[in-house]
Specification:
Blueprint (H helix, E strand, L loop, with lengths): L2 H5 L1 E2 L2 E2 L6 H46 L6 H42 L23 H24 L6 H12 L1
């Protein structure tokens, strides 16, 4: 049923009022399942984004730590720029998925309430079907971990370019002075 059918009026009133209780419950349970699938999908996307980002950071960090002599200033600047963009993109994706997840949870709560799953005594005497929910703020944990991984890559560059035993800092500084 599309929006135009749901808001369409007939001679007997709005279409929704013409549905039987069984049909209404069917619509609500279908809606509940769709929203639960949305929540599951958003969670899997977050885990893939986070896991992929951390994997890239570990590979990049291992490569930079093992082969610092192969990275010149231009390549280092390019890697930092790409890593900065990747960090920003992953953080934004997690942020927007968290907002969308909040919308889905509110929809689930409303649907559960409409089905009587949040009320005490509707299905079981003195009990409700759904337990009280305690929010777990995973997004902030993911974003902090992304920030730490990004900082780790920057620190590898600092170690490689400023504090290594070959005094590369002076070489880089002198090469930059000759360009200007």
């Amino acid at each position: 049923m599309d929006d135009s059918e749901a808001t369409r009026s007939t001679k007997d009133g709005p279409l929704f009022e013409q549905l039987t209780t069984s049909e209404k419950i069917g619509i609500l349970t279908t809606h509940l399942q769709i929203q639960a699938n949305n929540l599951h999908y958003l969670t899997s996307v977050d885990l893939r984004v986070f896991g992929g980002f951390i994997a890239i950071q570990l590979i990049l960090g291992g490569w930079l730590a093992a082969a610092p002599d192969n990275v010149d200033l231009v390549l280092a600047a390019c890697i930092i720029e790409i890593d900065t963009a990747l960090t920003y993109l992953c953080s934004k994706m997690l942020h927007h998925d968290r907002r969308r997840r909040g919308e889905v949870v509110k929809t689930l709560d409303t649907t559960n309430e409409a089905l009587g799953l949040e009320a005490v005594g509707v299905y079981l005497p003195g009990k409700k079907i759904n337990p009280d929910y305690e929010f777990t703020p995973w997004r902030s944990i993911y974003i902090k971990a992304i920030g730490v991984a990004y900082l780790g890559i920057l620190l590898i560059f600092v170690r490689n370019w400023i504090f290594d035993e070959q005094d590369r800092f002076l070489v880089v500084y002198n090469s930059m002075g000759s360009v200007m």
